[in-house]
Amino acid sequence: LNDLLSGNVDAIMETNPIHIPKLAADPRFRVYHSYSAWWIQRAIYWQNDHPLFCDFRVRQALTHAIDRRELLRVLNLPETITIVDGPYSRRQLLRSRLPDPLPYDPERARTLLEAADWRDRNGDGIRDRDGREFRFTTLVGSLPFNKEVAVYIQDKFRRVGIIMNIQMMPNINVLAKVKEGQFEAALTVFVSHDIWLKRFHFGERYPLGYKNTRVVELIEQASAVLAESDAKDQIYVQLMEIFREDLPVTFLFQRVRTIFAHRRIKGLSSPWQADPLWYMEYLWLEDED
Questions:
Q1: For 10-47, what is each residue's pLDDT tens digit?
Q2: pLDDT in tens, 197-209
Q3: What is the pLDDT of residue 289?
Q4: Could you give the CA distance from residue 229 to residue 245 in angstroms, rounded to a whole number?
């Protein structure tokens, strides 16, 4: 960032979006957003066999409690970023054939929690059941602006009577604990790719505590067909339907890379031609008066 501001470089990538307002106001620069890593989403993993999260109604409530579009605004990210509630194929994304995400609906969240018998029985603002408060710890990976995401979600959960503690650690450690099933909740990345789904999350080991043989069958089928095919798309349509109901994971938003470039660099555009390294041959320099 300092090199960009001092004129030593013409573009920088993977910068924290917290700097967007400052650089967007600087007439020397343009801000671009790249979705080149289309298969990666930011997500919260739930330990599905944990007493707090074993009821799919609770996982639905937690998802309804988060205003994901507002979260994008808080992070200075474009509100057009894709938000979905399950894994998807590349063609579904490019063709805009993805269902709308579950809406932000705190009243619906409260209703679902009540239906699962999580109530504020003593009036302290925290829901409880069988003498246990709805209180848990989320492991938060050290990704850009992950702490801000966690603090935002912590506040939203508090408003519906749920206490979420935050434990920061290197992202590689969070992924290792998710793979081993040693967590209550974890905020990190989710990869919408059948090889990743099979190997790390929804295969025979069930590290998320989510046991759904149909999901395993569909992932196996997806890994056996061509990547760019109608057959692959149809499998992911079925996976999406199951995920939208069960929500073993709460998906937040698709990964985006924020790129700042000097205005004299021409040929860049969001979202598919925003990365100057990938599209160098299509770029040119044009000094302005």
A1: 999 867 777 888 888 899 999 888 877 778 899 999 99
A2: 876 667 666 788 9
A3: 59
A4: 25
- Give CA–CA dist 47/52, Å, rounded: 9
H or E element at residue 240? helix 230-246
β-strands 257-262, 163-169 pairing: unpaired
Instruction: Please give the Cα distance from 157 to 150 (Å, whole number).
Output: 10
Q: What is the pLDDT of residue 72?
A: 93
Specify which of 15-29, 127-141, 246-260 reaches the highest per-range mean pLDDT. Answer: 127-141
Does an H or E element contain 265, and which? strand 265-266
Torsion angle defined by CA atoms of residues 94, 96, 97 and 102, in that order, rounded to the nearest 10 degrees = 120
Answer for the pair 71, 149: CB distance below 8 angstroms, yes or no.
yes
| Residue range 161-216, pLDDT digits in tens | 999 999 999 999 999 999 889 999 999 999 887 777 876 667 666 788 998 989 98
Residue 78's closest CA among 283, 287, 274, 267? 274
Beta bridge partners of 239: none
Q: Please give the Cα distance from 29 to 89 (Å, whole number).
A: 34
Q: How many residues does the chain have?
A: 289
User: Which residue in the block uniquely carries the two structure tokens 């063609």?
Assistant: 91
CA distances from 207 to 50, 177, 178, 197, 198 (A): 12, 9, 7, 11, 11
User: Phi/psi zone of residue 105: left (φ > 0), alpha (ψ -120 to 50 degrees), beta?
Assistant: beta
Tell me the DSSP string of 56-91: HHHHHHHHHT--HHHHHHHTT--TTS---SS---HH
Nearest one of 190, 176, 136, 185 to 158, comparing CA atoms: 136
Distance in angstroms (rounded) separating the CA atoms of residues 136 and 162: 9
Note whether 253 and 265 are within 8 A (CB): no
**Chain position carrying tokens 């395993």:** 216
